[in-house]
Write a sequence for this structure.
């Protein structure tokens, strides 16, 4: 049985920037599985349509960050496995936080029991210029 999980991208102030729904195979999952499933879903969506911009958690190689997402220099398939690796590494290095029911996930191995009301938010941190 697949479990549907709504994921929100939020600013540090709580403004919702994006929402996606992913499917997970089990009701007990790790933070790593949530991140991996999210990134894989984003890459699969992009690879099916090959639009000019990739909108995802982490930036693919050789792309330019814009207001509309990551500008692809040419339309090409993105490697989901590489994107997952980048996303997991970014979590470890505090490039973004994962909040599960308003509680910050501490490690990739942390386990989450999915309930119908489970809320998962990703909050990207931005680098301050001159800081």
């Amino acid at each position: 049985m697949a479990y549907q999980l709504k994921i929100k991208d939020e600013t540090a102030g709580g403004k919702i920037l994006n929402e996606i729904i992913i499917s997970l195979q089990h009701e007990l999952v790790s933070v790593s599985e949530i991140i991996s499933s999210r990134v894989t879903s984003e890459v699969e969506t992009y690879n099916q349509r090959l639009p000019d911009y990739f909108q995802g958690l982490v930036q693919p190689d050789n792309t330019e960050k814009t207001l509309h997402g990551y500008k692809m220099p040419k339309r090409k398939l993105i490697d989901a496995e590489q994107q997952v690796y980048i996303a997991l590494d970014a979590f470890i290095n505090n490039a973004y936080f994962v909040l599960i029911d308003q509680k910050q996930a501490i490690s990739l191995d942390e386990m989450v029991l999915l309930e119908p009301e489970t809320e998962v938010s990703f909050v990207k941190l931005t680098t301050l210029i001159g800081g």
Notes: Residues 3-48+78-124 form a domain with the Ubiquitin-like (UB roll) fold (CATH 3.10.20.90). The longest helix spans residues 31-49. The chain has two helices and ten strands. The mean pLDDT is 92.
